[in-house]
Amino acid sequence: MSNWRATGLPVFDYLIAPWPKYFEVGEIIVNLIGYMPLGFIVVSALSRGWTRKRKVAVTVLCAVLLSFCVETIQNFLPTRVSSNVDLAANTFGAFLGALAGVWWGQVIFAPGRGLAYWRERFIADDGLTGDIALILIILWVFVQLTPDQLLFAWGELRRLLDIAPPLPFEPGRLIVFETAQTASMMLAVGLFARCTLRASGPKLIVGLLVLGMSARLIGSASFFVPSSPLAWLTPGVQYGFFTGVALLFIALRLPRVAQHALAGASLLMASLLINMMPESPYFLRSISGGPVIIRRANYPNFYALCRLVAAIWPFAALAYLSALGLWRGERLESGHTTIN
């Protein structure tokens, strides 16, 4: 979001540009695949009374307008180029997604079926409250794709604001900080998930943690050269992981109110620790000849988005838990059924 500039060229000339002399098939495929979920979701959200042709047409029109705006804005970005090929690939991807959506969208999203059935069965709160919880959980999995951060190392505002580490580096101190931060955030995520679920068993929480670690493995294997799927598994992270498992096992046997409070306290503790942690000279980006992050295609933008979401996620989750506690307290006072 810096160095925006006007090139002086006509803004819409890219629409009539000839086929580019140099292009990457992978880029075209990424642009196509990227809009398929959009087409699938939008067509599924439209009125059931509409014909399939009308749904597909409206969905593709929405995708064209979105892609047109994005490509046009790229005229002013120093690292991007507006492309009619990208616009065409986005449109075709949305069209394919819309075709799939008219056939299978209702099966997945219809009330009492598919994802809606799963949500009603497992998510404790209905309406917007439950939706926000799901969005936060999905974003939690998303930020695991950042390969050059410690496991569950979120809430780091220091790097975002360009603030120097408050403590000097010492190997023992770094391991202690990594252990405490990883254990705190692992406990926070497990209890956050518990506060949003109906079931009291640990299966879904374990599944969520496994999904998050799988995303981290995928991110490290995909975005490092050479591939380093376990580069984030430092000694401090290992100690913190097993400590977090033990603490979470104990905390899941506490009353719901205590779990709610402990989740918020753990989020605050983990965010404090990550911002006080000394800078590690062994960090991946400073290792000469070690794995480096891929710097091609759209990955820098994806990486920056992941880092931003990771920085604000604990505070968004804490705000949600606070609002949820107030809302559930009001329900209890008004005589509504409690949530087990």
Walkthrough of the structure:
This protein has 340 residues and is mainly α. Helices cover 64% and strands 1% of the residues. It is built from 11 helices and 2 strands, in the order ααααααααβααβα. Strands 1-2 form a two-stranded antiparallel sheet. α1 crosses α2 and α2 packs across α3. The longest helix is centred in the last third of the chain and has 35 residues. The C terminus is likely disordered.
Radius of gyration: 23 Å
Uncertain spans:
284-290, 335-340
Mean pLDDT: 82
Helix count, DSSP H or I runs of 4 or more residues: 11
Q: How much helix is in the residues? A: 55-70%
Proportion of residues in β-strands: under 5%
How far apart are the first and last residues' alpha carbons, in Å? Answer: 45 Å
Main beta-sheet strand count, sense and barrel state? 2 strands, antiparallel
How many separate domains make up the residues?
Answer: 2
Q: Topology as H/E string?
A: HHHHHHHHEHHEH
What's the count of strands?
A: 2
Which strand order spans the largest sheet, edge to edge or round the barrel? Answer: 1-2
Query: Outline, from the CA principal axes?
Result: globular
State the secondary-structure class.
mainly alpha
Write the layout of secondary structure elements.
Elements: H1 25-45, H2 52-73, H3 84-109, H4 114-122, H5 127-143, H6 157-160, H7 171-196, H8 203-223, E1 224-225, H9 235-251, H10 256-276, E2 292-293, H11 299-333
Summarize the structure.
The protein is mainly alpha-helical. The protein is 64% helix and 1% strand.
Question: Keywords for this structure?
Answer:
340 residues, mainly alpha, two-stranded antiparallel ribbon, 11 helices, 64% helix, disordered C terminus
